[in-house]
Amino acid sequence: MYLTRALHRSLQQQADEIVTIFRGRRRSYREFCARVARLASALQALGMRPNDRVGILAQNSDRYLEFAMAAWWGGGVLNPVNVRWSVPEVVYSLDDCDTGILVVDDQFLPMAEGIRTAVRREPVLIHAGDGDGDAPAGMLSYERLIDEASPVPDAQRGGDDLAIVMYTGGTTGFPKGVMQTHSSLWCGTLQRMADTPPLKGGRVLHTNPFFHIAAIARVLMQFIAGETHVILPSFEAREVLETIERERITELGMVPTTIQMLIHHPDFARFDLGSVRRLGYGASPISAAVLEQAMEKLPGVEFAHSYGMTESMIVTTNPPGNHGSAARAQGLHLSAGCAGIGIEVKIADAEGNEVPRGTVGEILVRSGGVMPGYWNRPEDTARALRDGWLHTGDGAYMNEQGYIFIVDRIKDMIVSGGENVYSAEVENVIGRHPAVAVSAVIGVPHEKWGEAVHAVVVLKACAQATEDEIREHCRAHIAGYKCPKSVEFRQALPLSGAGKILKRDLRAPHWEGKARAVN
Q1: H or E element in which residue 451 lies
Q2: Which has the closest alpha carbon to 174: 236, 254, 91?
Q3: In whole angstroms, how large is the CA radius of gyration of the chain?
Q4: How far out from the chain centre does Cα 41 lie?
Q5: DSSP string covering 80-95, please?
Q6: Are 454 and 460 contacting, i.e. CB atoms less than 8 angstroms apart?
Q7: Which of 35, 216, 280, 446 could serve as a FRET partner for 146 with CA atoms 20 to 30 Å apart?
Q8: Residues with Cβ < 8 Å from 169, sequence gap 6 or more?
Q9: Structure confidence at residue 516 as a pLDDT band (50, 70, 90)
Q10: Who's near 139: CB < 8 A, 6+ residues apart?
Q11: For 73, phi and psi rounded to 5 degrees?
Q12: Cα 497 to Cα 490: distance, rounded to the nearest angstrom
């Protein structure tokens, strides 16, 4: 199976149907596929060979989807760069997987020169802008490349061939490149579709960033189902409401934070949202209050939840039936659902042995949708994939009916606004501040973002630093969402007998009285 196969089916059966809508620009499958074939040709002419990595640093747009499909059509591997990263983080990911071509849109044009001068191997830079002028100096024009290229046949790389490298936070302080193949992405997508079938004639609104696995999953589902992608550059509540009404959106894919922002927008009730038939949510746990409010404000809308991660697009699903009144009375709407079709899940102890039902352990998953490993990180891969099982690092229990309830996070990770933040990465940066002796970074409850990054810092003897200084130091090195929202100074950190920082002790006061230790 190869990911571009979905395009061939739609081109055969519905060539003149609309595939993308962006800022009033509409393209049919016929137009979209023609542009993909020409862009693939241009990428090959620029040096892209089979299995070469090509990147994109851009907000959501129709061009983003064209570039992803063109990379695969031409035989390449997509590196979707996190748009919230700083220049050093972007450079690290480009260097790590040797990305030779990078598309940059207008929003990130100011970062291009900093990237160019810092990378080990200078990539070919392509400017994907909406202006009528030529590309900036040292860059090629996206539209001109398409206009001047002749289409090439689909390379049809598929199966176990690498399709994408997606960077996620690193437990050792550096991001890890999660590898997914054509087969693993196909498998994960079909597993998701089997549990929550696409809505016929669907118009799905994209607001989640395309560099994220949740958005990639939804994009692939829509291409396979032949649906219409309605795309916004990013989430802005009023624009979402306006777009739902104007484009008659049938399905939304959101994270709990954006659901909360949408339903609490002061103009929410003024818009006609009657076209919406389903709201799919995930990426982080949702609070009972937000879910109940959303269901109350969107009566008649199906709610469906899926739990997955970059390493495994889909693990469990919680379908619309579990959001009805009877299921809510059993608390099933607050579960992560059951193992998806074709997916094995177990709750295990530290040795990988399954624990009794109702006992908290680590979620382990085994399926064709699990990654083959991390890019050039055999030791991390060996830790994550053991005896055929992916160790997720999430703590949960399973009830007698197979429903999974996530209660804690075993791996040292914070989920803020649907984005993963690894404590070690933040601690690594804080430790470079000249006044800091040691630090510990934890997640604390936050009403808007679910969890917020909180740093507990011990200063060196006679040294001084303020909370603002620590935050400013972090902002110079890592993305804003990873920077501490709050900083606490202590004389010492709690340690175990082995000298390990007891983060659970640091977290406990913040999570006291809550049913679970994650949001």
Answers
A1: strand 450-459
A2: 91
A3: 23
A4: 29
A5: E--TT--HHHHHHHHH
A6: no
A7: 216
A8: 175, 176, 413, 420, 421, 422, 425, 482
A9: low
A10: 104, 112, 125, 126, 127
A11: -60, -35
A12: 20
* Placement of tokens 């709750």 in the chain: 347
- Averaged pLDDT, 175-194: 94
CB atoms < 10 A from the CB of 428, how many? 18
Q: How far apart are CA 213 and CA 311, in angstroms?
A: 9
Quickly state the pLDDT bin for 515 (edges 50, 70, 90). low
- Tens digit of pLDDT for each residue in 59-82? 999 999 999 999 999 999 999 999
What six digits make up the tokens of 398? 């399973």
Can you give the pLDDT at residue 55?
98
Whole-angstrom distance, CA of residue 344 vs CA of residue 316: 9
CB atoms within 10 A of CB 242: 14
CA–CA distance from 399 to each of 357, 396, 496, 502 (Å)?
Answer: 5, 10, 32, 29
> Which tokens belong to 24?
């009033």
Three-class SS state of 146: helix
Indicate the SS3 state at residue 75.
Answer: coil
Place of tokens 């649907």: 418
Q: What percent of the chain has pLDDT over 70?
A: 95
Angstrom distance (rounded) from CA 374 to CA 380: 7
Q: Is the pLDDT of residue 497 over 60?
A: no
Tokens standing for residue 340:
């998806």
Amino acid at residue number 511: W
Three-state secondary structure readout of 68-137: HHHHHHCCCEEEECCCCCCHHHHHHHHHHCCEEEEEEEHHHHHHHHHHHHHCCCCCEEEEECCCCCCCCC
Task: Enumerate the domain spans of the chain.
Answer: 1-7+30-158, 413-511
Query: Max alpha carbon distance in the chain (Å)?
Result: 73
Q: Is residue 222 pLDDT above 60, yes or no?
A: yes
Fold that domain 413-511 belongs to in CATH: GMP Synthetase; Chain A, domain 3 (3.30.300)
Contacts of 235 (CB under 8 A, 6+ apart): 207, 208, 258, 261
CA distance 14 to 85: 38
Which neighbouring-strand residues pair with 179? 165, 373
What is the spatial distance between Cα 336 and Cα 516, in angstroms, rounded to a whole number? 13
d(CA 84, CA 212): 11
End-to-end CA distance of the chain: 37
- Whether the pLDDT of residue 496 is over 70: the answer is no
- Coil, strand, or helix at residue 9? helix
In terms of pLDDT, which residue wins out, 409 or 467? 467
Per-residue pLDDT tens digits for 234-260 = 999 999 999 999 999 999 998 877 888
Q: How many other CB atoms are found less than 10 A from the CB of residue 254?
A: 24
H or E element that contains 24? none
The DSSP secondary structure of 236-254, one letter per residue, reads: -HHHHHHHHHHHT--EEEE
Q: Which residue has the tokens 């949708």?
A: 369
- Coil, strand, or helix at residue 29? helix
Which CATH class for the 1-7+30-158 domain? alpha beta
